[in-house]
Amino acid sequence: MKHVYGWLLLTPAAILLIAFTHYPTVATIVDSLFSKGTAVRPSHFVGLANYEMMMDDPIFWKVLTNNTWFAIGTIPTSIVLAIIMALLVNRSLPGRSLVRMAYFTPTILPMIAVANIWLFFYTPDIGLIDQVAGFFGFGRHNWLGDPATVLPSIIVMTIWKEAGFFMIFYLAALQNIPPELEEAARLEGSTRWYYFRRVLFPLLMPTTLFVMINAVLNSFKLVDHLFVLTKGGPDNASNLLLFYIFESAFSYFDTNYAATLTVVLLGLLAVMALLQFHFLDKRIHYR
Amino acid sequence: MKTYPFLSRDFQGVLEVGAAWFLALLWVAPLAYAFWAAFHPGQYAVHFDISAPLTLANFREALSQAPFLRYGLNTFILVSTILTAQLVLCTLAAYAFARYRFFGCDIAFALVLVQLMITPEILIVENYGTLARFELIDTILGIGLPYMASAFGIFLLRQAFKSTPKELEEAARLEGCGVFGVLWRVYVPLARPTYLAYGLVSISHHWNNFLWPLIVTNSVETRPLTVGLGIFGAPESGVDWSIITAATLMSVAPLLIAFLLFQRQFVQSFMHAGIK
């Protein structure tokens, strides 16, 4: 009887999960082995030809490199800022809830709105950054139009958006650390930097791992801002893997190549999943 | 270990307060700037002058150029449809996982958790094909369908149900409650904080979601705010910048106001949902 009830309760969710997660995952892998169908030549099995094409595709390597730089550029800085914010807000402070709110607000804004606001900062000549730079005697610069500065510009914006979100996990962790520890460290005459480095930071390590994995996942899923800011340009200098998948499928209508690229993304996420399981085990030992 | 006696603890404290406030000002600056630009005439967008006249013209102009009220209604319908379906589906599934040791439940649970990693926005190509087959392209239901069975919701509620004492269930059964009676009278009321946390996270996620709705929709009747804003703000549309900012503020206003009013609940929900 319990078998029947269990499955009956699960069925509605299971149908949707299979239809929109498991089936498309398998279908993506299958589609990546077939050629792009045209009116004269229907889609047919081509083995690994799409993967060979991908290996020879300079844009694929470009977006993968960009994704790596995007992750390296955003994650460590956001985490350091998040720890600083959490430490600042965790002690008594005039206007503490206002300060905490200021840090957290970007989290609840949609990426598309954030991009709209920041677009204007980066606009050459009339944009805010150029105005301020001009005031101090620096020349104009097309921040989003220059392949050298476009990715860093997007990284700065993403840090602004994400640091406050990561802060709340550190805040939660800090609230679980007994205050006696700091008291004891002070009695021992250790400086606060020493206390942070040798006591607090190691205790925050599980949180850091948790935040880090989520941040890496986000760096692969977050492409909304590209639609407003750069469309992946100039010359793919700011293009990311998921945006390239979107372009392949809905601009170039090559769904089989898009499926091939998706398989790479799925593979990367699977690696992340394994890391996460490994880390979750660690966290349990820690307690 | 070097110490700095001249840096007294008081002085350090002042420095820290200063740093906290400086960072806070830096963090609100972009948003504060958006407010400035939206409420002042276009020529003051980069020209800061306290005496600049306030105006609502930018908002009026944005509303006349694109149907933001309709987009707002679409977003509202989308978010409430998704949340309602999620609450029902996830409650049932979580109940099954928490209280029934049914055949294959461990494998089924592992398969559910797959969705935590492979979220629907990764599988845009295949899911678009599925929707097309069911003729659900350009419908609000189509945007919501892939998100309704949420692994995250099932996971959170299962945790909450598992921590409910079994004695309460037994007592309810003695009172004559059936399978759904126990769920409705015992498990659901006790999991209220989890429902609140999950609800707030779900609402903010889907209010802000962009990529998948962009792909699925192509008409005013279905487009949510984010997509409407994305099209409106595209650089090639040539809309005045103050008007774009006004439109941006209108799109985020409902969520932003809700956040300012229920700040504590929002922060705690994100915390609660992230840590479990």
Structure description:
The complex is a heterodimer of chains A (287) and B (276). Chain A has a single domain, classed as MetI-like (MetI-like fold). Helices cover 73% and strands 0% of the residues of chain A. Chain A contains 13 helices and no strands. In chain A, helix 10 (205-221) packs antiparallel against helix 13 and helix 12 packs antiparallel against helix 13. The radius of gyration of chain A is 24 Å and the shape is globular. Chain B has 276 residues and is mainly α. Chain B has 2 domains: 9-60, no CATH class; 68-275, MetI-like (MetI-like fold, Orthogonal Bundle). Chain B is built from 14 helices and no strands. The relative contact order of chain B is 0.13. Chains A and B meet through helix 1, helix 3, helix 4, helix 5 and helix 7 of A and helix 1, helix 3, helix 4, helix 5 and helix 6 of B.
CATH architectural name of chain A: Orthogonal Bundle
Helix content of chain A: over 70%
- So what's the CATH class of chain A? Mainly Alpha
At the fourth level of CATH, the homologous superfamily of the largest domain in chain B is MetI-like
Indicate the multimeric state.
Answer: heterodimer
Look at the structure and give the CATH class of the largest domain in chain B: Mainly Alpha
- Biggest interface and its residues per chain? A-B, 97 and 91 residues
First and last CA, distance of chain B = 39 Å
Class derived from helix and strand content of chain A:
mainly alpha
CATH-scheme architecture of the largest domain in chain B: Orthogonal Bundle
By DSSP, the count of extended strands of chain B is: 0
